[in-house]
Design goal:
The chain is 82% helix and 1% strand. The protein contains 13 helices and 2 strands. It has a two-stranded antiparallel sheet with strand order 1-2.
Amino acid sequence: MNSTLTFPWYAKFSLIIVGALAFIYILYIGQHIIVPLIYATVFAILLNPLVNYLITFKINKIVSISLAVLFAIILLMSLLYFISAQISMFGETYPKLKEKFLVNSAQFIRWTSEHFNIRQYKINAWIEQNKTDTIQRMGGAIGQTLATINSVLIIVFLLPVYLFMILYYKNLLLEFIKKLFHSSYHLAVFDVLSSSKKIIQSYLIGLLFEAVIIAALNSLGLLILGINYALILGITGALLNVIPYIGGVIAIALPMIVAYVTKESSTYALLVLAIYVLIQFIDNHLIIPRIVASRVKLNALISIVAVLAGSALWGIPGMFLSIPLTAIIKVVFDHIDSLKPWGFLLGNTIPTNKTIFRINKYKINP
């Protein structure tokens, strides 16, 4: 006599919650191992066509993989050198920025004292009193920034090793995934892997197109205003814009600082802000929905939640990975009958009134 063990709904719900929390905790404590592996997998998917192309010329597999990894390293180092060059350039403008800031601060204190009838020494005393709190907060922010830089450096040094190994053992890994499932599920597994590969490739290509368009718009706007280093600032802003939320703020701050330091009038900094806000509006409402978001087929609400969750879990590296990983999760949900409603929730297909279902005589309206 066969007996099936059944659990009440609250027991199932509790098990799901505990399992999810345990899984998230493992992802958090193992981020220094897991995050580089995920990045290496993403880059391996991008470089795999190059490796296959080199092998068609009867180049040894190890040599082909080494050339592809070397190409990726050169590209990454060039990007890091470009960013460091921009940081050094802004370091040179710091004395001018400090001097101008002190002058404007003194003018603002005098204006506040005259219009609000407050003694200047009281304003200065209040500023000095709040310096300590500000320094302490900055210390915490600097510590968090150093931790983020440390995690990024770990990824950079481990990435080439993981990348080479994943490309070399690609067939072994695919065969392992195949053996995990019964033969009746092989077609669905192959479809999931193929769809995931296409999503990653198309998403990153979409980001590249977005960066090119944003770089052109940024540079054009700064050139019209006559801002120094317009081309470099435009390209840097496009690269920073790839980082969700934080990147856009930094991208606006850098040209505003340059305009504030190099121009006599502070109006140029406000004009830079206006142009970049306009570009961000175009990016968020035209470029991203048509070039980037359409490739991953996620709705905006889920995308925002995924980015915030990725940031809370893995910091800035998690923000980069949040969108493609969520898109892959959607693909998996779409291939499992019991999880298809969750895949529909993640998607960008919005039902119309005509598609709202009926239950008996009652119509359920939105």
